[in-house]
Amino acid sequence: MILEIKKLSVSLDGKKLLTDINMNVAHGARHLLSGRNGSGKSTLATTIAGNNAYTIDGGQIIFDGQDITNQNATTRALMGIFLGAQNVPEIPGLTVLSFLKHSIAAHTHFETGKDLSMGEFLSKLEDARTKLDIPKEWLNRSINVGFSGGERKRLMLLRLVMTNPKLAILDEPDSGADATVQQQIANVIHEMTNTTFIFISHQQNFTDLVAPTDITTLSNGKVMIK
Questions:
Q1: Alpha helices, DSSP H, located in the chain
Q2: How far from 42 is each of 21, 86, 87, 159, 221, CA to CA, in Å?
Q3: Would you say 12 and 53 are in contact if contact means Cβ atoms under 8 Å apart?
Q4: According to the model, what pLDDT value does residue 93 have?
Q5: Any idea which of 3-12, 143-152, 168-177 has the lowest mean pLDDT?
Q6: Count of beta carbons in the 10 Å neighbourhood of residue 68
Q7: Among candidates 151, 133, 132, 131, which has minimal Cα distance to 142?
Q8: pLDDT recorded at residue 224
Q9: 84-93, 104-113, 128-137, 183-192, range with the lowest pLDDT
Q10: Residue 152 half-sphere exposure, CB side, CA atoms within 13 Å?
Q11: Are 139 and 56 in contact (CB under 8 A)?
Q12: Domain count, the chain
């Protein structure tokens, strides 16, 4: 298992949001997290990624054999957990190119202890940009400023491909994306066979494209027993 969640209970400002969540995610899975709005899906997704707004009241999160329950979001990201959130804020003044360079440099140093060469980074970026048909001019624009919903999802894909995480958590990646972008997202998920995916979606057509290998359904902050 790449991820084991054991009796996880989570609250926000004293309000219990998740209760005794147990969930196992196998290596290479395309694991659908389903449930109605307000059932706790996004809370669980961002808690796994290390959102410190939430309080873990009990339980464990085991990632790749290590207990990460008390690790911060940065450490979890460097260990190989990627979060594609629903709403990524605009960051005026920080270009896509600069953001990616610093992110990939941090991952490279964490994994190898070595600094990332500019040549290696630019080569990797060009490969990913070409694969995803990302316009070159996007790289010099500020993060998400002036980007449409579909364009933001394509930037998320660029970051995903560049970081090549062990586990990618995608919270409604189909939201705001047209049919072409949804197909592109599904294609990338299927092509990245070394990455395990947890995804949230309310659209059956997108879920069908991804073809989940496993499903966990939440209701009122608890796992529904099959």
A1: 41-49, 73-79, 96-112, 118-132, 149-163, 179-191, 204-210
A2: 14, 9, 11, 20, 11
A3: yes
A4: 85
A5: 143-152
A6: 18
A7: 151
A8: 83
A9: 84-93
A10: 21
A11: no
A12: 1
What is the C-alpha separation between 1 and 26, in angstroms, rounded? 4
CATH code: domain of residue 39: 3.40.50.300
Q: In this structure, what token pair is assigned to residue 111?
A: 């994994």
What type of residue is 146?
Answer: G
**Alpha-carbon span 204 to 190, nearest angstrom:** 17
Print the domain residue range for 180: 3-223
29-77 residue pLDDT tens: 999 999 988 899 999 999 999 998 999 999 999 999 999 999 999 999 9
What pLDDT score was predicted for residue 201? 92
Alpha-helical segments (H) within 51-144: 73-79, 96-112, 118-132
CB-based contact 171:201 (threshold 8 Å): no
Q: Would you state the structure tokens that stand for residue 145, as one six-digit string?
A: 């400023």
Q: How many CA atoms lie within 13 A of 172 on its CB side?
A: 15
Q: Quote the percentage of the chain above a pLDDT of 70.
A: 100
Distance of alpha carbon 67 from alpha carbon 44, whole angstroms: 16
5: tokens are 């969640």
Residue 139's closest CA among 153, 149, 129? 129
**CA 95, CA 144: separation in Å to the nearest integer?**
9
Q: Which residues contact 119 (CB under 8 A, 6 or more apart)?
A: none
The Cα–Cα gap between 183 and 141 comes to: 25
